[in-house]
Amino acid sequence: MASARHSLQRLVLGSVLLGAAAVLAGCGSMKDQMSTSAIPDDYRTRHPIMLSEVEHTLDVPIASGDRRLTLSVQDSIAGFAADYLSASTGTIQIMMPHGSPNSGAASAMRKQIRQVLTTRGVPSNRIIETSYQAEANSNAAPVRISYVAITAMTNPCGEWPEDLQNNTFSNKNYHNFGCATQSNLAAQIANPMDLVTPRDMAPIDATRRSNVIGLYREGSNTATE
Predict the structure, then answer these.
(1) Per-residue CA distances from 87 to 29, 53, 76, 199 (Å)
(2) At the top level of its lineage, which domain of life is listed (predicted)?
(3) Are the C-beta atoms of residues 143 and 100 closer than 8 Å to each other?
(4) Binning pLDDT at 50, 70 and 90, where does residue 9 land?
C-alpha cells in the first residue's frame, strides 16, 4: 500500500513538472514573439518635426460695395503683420484680384491695407503689390496677403496606407498614429531656431537679484513673489 502511494506521488510530481516545463516553454516562445513583433514604431521618427520654407497667407474678403476696412479686418491684418515681423525679413505681398466684380472695391482699399501694415511696423520698401486673375463669377475674390518664412511643420496627416487590422494583429501603431500630436506641437513653436540651437541666456537683472537676496536674508516670505 505504501509503495503504491509512493508511485502515485511520483506520477503526480512528474505530471506537475511536465506541465510547468510546458508553461515555461510557452512563455519563452511568447516572449520571443513579443520581442520581435510587438515593438511599436516610433511616431517621432515616422512624423518628424522639420524646418521648411512655408508660404503664410491671409485672405481679406472684400465685397463690391465696401469702401473701407472694418475694425475686425484691420485687427486681422495687424496680427498677420506681427507674425510676419517675428518670422521673416523678406518681402510681403498684397495680391489684388483682377477680373472679378469686386476688383474695383479691392483696388480702392489697397492703400488702407498698406497703411495698416506700415502702421504696425512693416517697412514700406518690403511691401510688394501684385495682382492675380480671379474667376469671373467670383463675387468676393479676396485680397491675399502673403509672405514666406522658415516654419516648423510635419508631413501631412490623415494618410492611411494600410488596413488597420494588420496593425491590430501585430500590435503595432498605425501609420497616422501621433501625427496630430506632432503637428500641434510644431504649430506651437514660436521660434523654429529653438529646434536647432538653444538661445543665449538673458542678462541678469541686478536690481531684482539684489532685492530678492535682501528679502531672503530678512526671512521674508515674499522673496520668491
Answers:
(1) 55, 11, 17, 16
(2) Bacteria
(3) no
(4) low
Task: Give the pTM.
Answer: 0.63
Tens digit of each residue's pLDDT (9 = 90 or more) over 207-219: 888 888 888 888 8
DSSP-assigned states of every residue in 135-185: -TT-TTPPEEEEEEEEEEE-SPS----S-HHHHHHHT---TTTTHHHHHHH
Contact between 43 and 126 (Cβ < 8 Å): no
- In degrees rounded to 5, what are phi and psi of residue 97? -70, 145
Query: Are 91 and 127 a contacting pair, CB within 8 Å?
Result: yes
pLDDT, tens digit, 9 for 90 and up, residues 66-77: 889 999 999 999
Could you tell me which residues are beta bridge partners of residue 133? 98
The pLDDT tens digits for 164-175 are 777 666 677 788
Distance between the two ends of the chain, CA-based, in angstroms?
A: 87
CA angle 193, 196, 201 (to 5 degrees): 70
